[in-house]
Amino acid sequence: MIFDMKTPLIKSSKLSELNNCNVWLKMESSQSTGSFKQRSIGNACQKYVEQGAIKFISSSGGNAGISVAYMGKVLNIPVTVVVPKTTSQRAIDLMLSEGAEVIVHGDSWVDANELALSFVNDHAVYIHPFDHQYLWDGVAEIVDEVIAEGIRPTAVVLSVGGGSLISGISQGLQKHHLDIPIYAIETVGTASLNTSIQLGEHVTLDQVTGIATTLAAKKVCEQAFRVSQNNDVRGLTVSDGETVRACLKFLDDHRTLVEPACGATLSVLYDQKIAFTETDDVLVIVCGGASITFDQLSKYTVELSV
Ligand SMILES: *Cc1c(COP(=O)(O)O)cnc(C)c1O
């Protein structure tokens, strides 16, 4: 492997004690680009290069775009990322620092994505942020690593945006014959999967709101919806304030700064929203996120009166 993808598996004393079980943190925040996207996007980029790609195109202003930019640098492939005007300067700077060309275009992701797609041809490949088998294959390796360390989880807790994380984890669990509950966490303003679970149909939200922009997909991918219908997937939503509180606590307890998208998952453990038992080994995917600074987290704290 030309980029390090193996992440630490840490037993959290604090969260284990709080939840009266064994809480195992899979630290995807330790990836080179700060999130699990390094696995999903990393695997897709490698596969496409093997198939002859000579350019990568992305329209993600978040962690997916940052990982595509990084992979371009590692694989020596030019990258163009088209992002909407709403994209944070920090995300743009991170992509530029990996050597990617960044084009700021349009007021929304739909506009940026349209321009990005116009650049695609037989050799310039579009890297989808969450909806492709190659992405899920990369994510599934998280479960392989946990099993290799001798832990057989009895439940998984993870965040859901467009649904590549839950799709890949579910695939990994199946491979190891682990038929266990998956807790799918979203914020109230980004609850596309939770709403679909409740209604029993694959819905598109009219709008997505709040600070967890990394989770802001109006509709999850078909595979994620299918996973929710065919497995023991239990949805939970949390408030933006709860995500920020969890980010702050996690910073103190584990000295790691994560995005609200990840704080969402951590908050259900800090706030003891799930009843676990002493024999449970709970796998928590610390999905990470690069679009956060201590300064930004402090601003959220003030804005949301946390
Ligand atoms: C992409 C991402 C998510 C959401 O993952 P999906 O595969 O889109 O559901 C959550 N947290 C972080 C930090 C991410 O980068």
Automatic annotation (TrEMBL):
Top-rank taxon, per record: Bacteria
UniProtKB keywords: Lyase, Pyridoxal phosphate
Cofactors: pyridoxal 5'-phosphate
Biological processes, Gene Ontology terms: isoleucine biosynthetic process; L-serine catabolic process; L-threonine catabolic process
EC numbers: 4.3.1.17
Gene Ontology MF term list: L-serine ammonia-lyase activity; threonine deaminase activity
Tryptophan synthase beta chain-like PALP domain span: 6-288
Reaction(s) catalysed by this chain's protein: L-serine = pyruvate + NH4(+)
One Pfam family hit: PALP
Annotated family: Belongs to the serine/threonine dehydratase family.
PANTHER family: CATABOLIC L-SERINE_THREONINE DEHYDRATASE (PTHR48078:SF2), THREONINE DEHYDRATASE, MITOCHONDRIAL-RELATED (PTHR48078)
UniProt protein name: L-serine ammonia-lyase
UniProt organism field: Acinetobacter venetianus (strain ATCC 31012 / DSM 23050 / BCRC 14357 / CCUG 45561 / CIP 110063 / KCTC 2702 / LMG 19082 / RAG-1)
